[in-house]
């Protein structure tokens, strides 16, 4: 069982690396100053834009997403134990759908 898991992890890792290398190899590279310029409502930006966002907002967002998905999963798990296995699978599929929406 552990051997199958390690083979799966190795195949997924190698597949990810191959896809990344392929995307780097075939992606177009056409740098141009107009493409790199900041676009703001069709007008040129009056000055260089430096956007600094406080780390605190990112921290709260990450914590919210982690706890929110954990609560949804635990709720579905509890519902599956209380009701039936079929109901659990339905809730778990809804959780997967919800998680896919977040990412």
Number of helices: 4
Straight-line distance between termini = 30 Å
Helix content range of the residues, please?
over 70%
Bulk shape: flat
Low-confidence stretches: none
- Multimerization status: single chain
Main beta sheet: strand number and arrangement?
2 strands, antiparallel
Rg is: 22 Å
Structural class: mainly alpha
Number of domains: 1
β-sheet strand percentage:
under 5%
Sheet with the most strands: spatial strand order: 1-2
Helix-strand pattern: HHEEHH
Mean pLDDT: 78
The tally of beta strands, per DSSP, is 2
Give the topology, please.
Elements: H1 2-26, H2 33-36, E1 39-40, E2 43-44, H3 55-82, H4 85-102
Antiparallel strand pairs: 1-2
Helix pairs in contact: 3-4
In short:
The chain is mainly alpha-helical. The chain has 4 helices and 2 strands.
Structure notes:
Helix content is 73%, strand content 4%. With 103 residues, the chain is mainly α. The protein has one domain (23-102). The chain has a two-stranded antiparallel sheet. The longest helix is centred in the middle third of the chain and has 28 residues, at 55-82. It is flat and about 60 Å long.
């Amino acid at each position: 069982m552990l051997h199958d898991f390690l083979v799966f992890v190795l195949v997924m890792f190698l597949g990810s690396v191959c896809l990344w290398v392929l995307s780097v190899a075939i992606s177009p590279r056409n740098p141009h100053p107009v493409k790199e310029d900041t676009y703001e409502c069709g007008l040129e930006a009056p000055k260089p834009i430096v956007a600094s966002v406080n780390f605190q907002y990112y921290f709260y967002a990450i914590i919210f997403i982690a706890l929110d998905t954990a609560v949804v999963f635990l709720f579905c798990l509890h519902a599956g134990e209380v009701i039936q296995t079929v109901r659990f699978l339905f809730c778990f599929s809804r959780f997967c759908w919800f998680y896919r929406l977040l990412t």
